[in-house]
Specification:
By secondary structure, the chain is mainly alpha-helical. The protein has a domain of 181 residues. The two termini are 19 Å apart.
Length: 264
C-alpha cells in the first residue's frame, strides 16, 4: 500500500497495462471462454478502472470525488468544442478528396444509421478511458514535465497500451500500421493536452476530442471506405500539422499562453 501511495503514477501504468494485456492474452491464446462484449468493455475501461483503484488506495474516498470532479467542467468556450470537431471535419474533407482524386463514388450516408455508431463511438473509448488518461495521468505527468513532453509521453504509453489489439484478427487495429498509429495518437494527445490545460483540466473536453477523433476515423474508413493505411497517412499528416500549429501558437511549456498547466 505504501509503495502505491508513494508511486501512484507508476502503479497506475503498471495496472492499466496488466488489465489490457491480460484480457487480450485470454483472447489471443484462447485461455478460456470470455464473451467478447466483456473483453471489450473491461479492456476499454481499464484506464478508468486503474485510476479508481490507485486513487482509492492512495487517497481514499475523497480522492475518488476529486478524480471525477473535472468531468463536470463542460461549460467552456465554444471554441474548444469547435477545435475538437475540426478533427472530424479534417477527416471528412481528406476522405472525400481522396475518393474524388481516385474517381471513386462517394457513398450516401444514412444519417439515422449514424445514431448507434455515434453512441458506440462515444462510449467505447472516450467516455470510459479519459478519466484515467486525462484525469489521472496527465496532471501527474505535467508535475514532472512540461505540457508538451507530458502529452508526448502519455501519447506513446497510450499507443503502446493498444498494442495487443494488433494480435486480435477481428479488431480494426489488426490492419493498421502500428508506427503510423503511434504517431497519430501522439499528435492527438498533444491536442488533448492543449485543450485540457486551457479548460481548467476538463475531462469532459478530453472525452469530446477523443470522440471526434474516433468519429472521423469511423466516417473516413468504415462509412466512406477509404483504405485504412491510406487514411492514416493522409488524416494523420493533417492531425500532426494541427498539433504542430498548436505547439507553435500555445508554446510547449503549458500548451497555453494564458494558463499554467494542470498539476497534481
Amino acid at each position: 500500500m505504501k509503495l502505491i501511495k508513494n508511486n501512484p503514477l507508476t502503479s497506475y501504468f503498471i495496472l492499466v497495462y496488466l488489465i489490457m494485456y491480460g484480457l487480450c492474452s485470454v483472447e489471443i491464446f484462447n485461455l478460456f471462454e470470455m464473451p467478447e462484449i466483456i473483453l471489450w468493455l473491461l479492456g476499454s475501461s481499464a484506464p478508468t478502472i486503474s485510476a479508481v483503484i490507485i486513487t482509492y488506495l492512495s487517497d481514499g474516498k475523497e480522492g475518488i470525488n476529486t478524480l471525477f470532479k473535472p468531468f463536470l467542467i463542460y461549460k467552456v468556450k465554444t471554441k474548444w468544442y469547435l477545435a475538437a470537431f475540426a478533427i472530424t471535419l479534417l477527416s471528412i474533407v481528406i476522405s472525400i478528396t481522396y475518393l474524388s482524386l481516385n474517381n471513386i463514388d462517394i457513398p450516401s450516408i444514412n444519417l439515422l444509421g449514424l445514431i448507434p455508431i455515434l453512441m458506440m463511438t462515444f462510449i467505447m473509448g472516450p467516455l470510459v478511458e479519459e478519466t484515467g488518461w486525462a484525469g489521472f495521468a496527465q496532471p501527474r505527468l505535467q508535475s514532472r514535465f512540461n505540457a508538451l513532453t507530458a502529452s508526448v509521453i502519455l501519447g506513446i504509453l497510450w499507443g503502446v497500451w493498444h498494442l495487443p489489439l494488433w494480435f486480435l484478427p477481428d479488431s480494426s487495429q489488426s490492419t493498421m500500421s502500428f508506427g503510423l498509429f503511434l504517431v497519430v495518437v501522439v499528435a492527438l494527445r498533444t491536442l488533448m493536452g492543449w485543450a485540457y490545460n486551457n479548460t481548467g483540466g476538463s475531462i469532459f473536453i478530453a472525452v469530446i476530442f477523443h470522440f471526434f477523433f474516433n468519429l472521423g476515423n469511423t466516417i473516413g474508413v468504415d462509412i466512406l471506405g477509404v483504405p485504412m493505411n491510406h487514411f492514416l497517412y493522409l488524416a494523420g499528416a493533417a492531425l500532426v500539422g494541427y498539433a504542430v500549429w498548436v505547439v507553435i501558437v500555445a508554446g510547449p511549456t503549458n500548451l497555453s499562453r494564458e494558463n499554467a498547466r494542470i498539476k497534481i
